[in-house]
Specification:
Distance between the termini: 48 Å
Largest sheet: 10 strands, mixed
Structural class: alpha+beta
CATH architecture of the largest domain: 3-Layer(bba) Sandwich
CATH topology of the largest domain: FAD/NAD(P)-binding domain
CATH superfamily of the largest domain: FAD/NAD(P)-binding domain
Number of domains: 3
Helix content: 25-40%
Oligomer: single chain
Radius of gyration: 23 Å
Shape: globular
Strand content: 15-25%
Amino acid sequence: MAPTAQALRTTRKDLLAQLAQDRVYDIAVVGGGATGLGVALDAAARGFSVVLLESHDFAKGTSSRATKLVHGGVRYLAQGNISLVREALHERTTLLRNAPHLAQPLAFVVPSYHWWEAPFYGIGLTLYDLLAGKAGLGKTRFLGVDATAQALPTVRRAGLKGGVRYWDGQFNDARLALALARTAATRGALLVNYCAATGLLYEDGKISGLQAQDSITGQSYSVRSRCVVNAAGVWVDSLREMDSDAHSASGGRAIQPMVAPSQGVHMVVDRSFLDSDQALMVPKTSDGRVLFAVPWLGKVILGTTDTPRHDLAREPLAFAEEVDFILSESARYLSRAPTRADIKSIWVGLRPLVKPQDDDGESTKALSREHTVITSRSGLVTVTGGKWTTYRAMAEDVLEQCAEKGLIERRPAGQTEDLRLVGADVAAGFSHVSVSQTEGLHSYGGEAAQVKALPGADVVLTQGLTEAMVRFAARYEYAVTVEDMLARRSRLLFLDARLALQWAPRVAAILQEETGLDPKAAEFAQLTAQYLQVP
């Protein structure tokens, strides 16, 4: 069944008052991205008491900067990693079922310009269908030249031999993260954004909680917990270093960094460059990478890259060579190639690629899903790596490790398998929302009526964004700043940065009226400049 129909208020004063209470939680989670929120929801669904702290906003980092795909991992077939593909396909179906208002099936077309490409990719994609079985979203089909051009009206016709169409999923990553947070709250979890973990608490050499600081008021808190899960994505090594430093005087050794960050660049252009509800996918570009042109919320996402980085910038910028790569490869497949001047917004996500861990005294469990869970001598459980599609399976693995180490009691897994997220329509099944649609009430699912009941429901600001949506975000969706609203509750910053900047003052006024807090409008103007900075 879906969670409670009436949305829970997220007044910041109330959240901090709960955080200040003298209690011991079963589990404290650090990090409000896909992994941390998945752990919090799974733990709360099993009846554990849970607190989650996020230093910035939920999904502020990597988890709002994905390519928006829910996929089984076609490329893993070539590696022979069948178990990973099966698991991801299962989780794809689970996600689409539990959040049909935020995730939908999407057709992908692989155009062929050499005689061997269609049969080569078609065989692999047919195997993909067989692995999906009843969980398949649509049958892989070979397309002739005309059918390929009909599916992708702007594909380059010169030399086109045909194509292959297969199915995967698409989703709204930031709003899914928010749905996870709010669903966990309906199960009793306390989630606080803009509250950073600044230290660890110990009793008899074992972790017993966290020190935290609210970044808005500066107030410090001691949060006691039987188990601490470090799910801070590319930033997990920071908390691991705190743990290591606390034991250095007693013979502890310096940690080996777990994460080798890699960045993925995405550029957004007008829908006219693709003009289709189906995505274009190139499995092997001139340098062996994958290229997507994906319709999303009325625009088209072009990407992505995979470039090593040596820093952990909160707002990483694209490199000129990455932009050159995406534009030049797009020109090989689109009849009208976008240029730098056509880019509406450009954004970068850091992927937490996991380094191999030598034996340094930690209990290491490298799992079969591209993610890693380790437990330190003091009991700090760290998880990083993985991908959005398998967030739920990752959460189950984390809780299994916590139970295995005796940090929590073992309780039955599978509690989130059929747990509908906030806003899900129980009777809907897979949503039929078109990927060409701009933002609007469809993203709220069963909560649309509550949004429409708020003041300003008939005042449209831009592209499906109303004043009522801003008020709903402030009252029920943890929104504090203009960036919270226009980057993640609405995706306007990611879709059209100039338009987001235009409406920022009005959004700031509504937020301040609702929360009484500084909506950080000046900081948003500076951030917008970065989303428009095309090297």
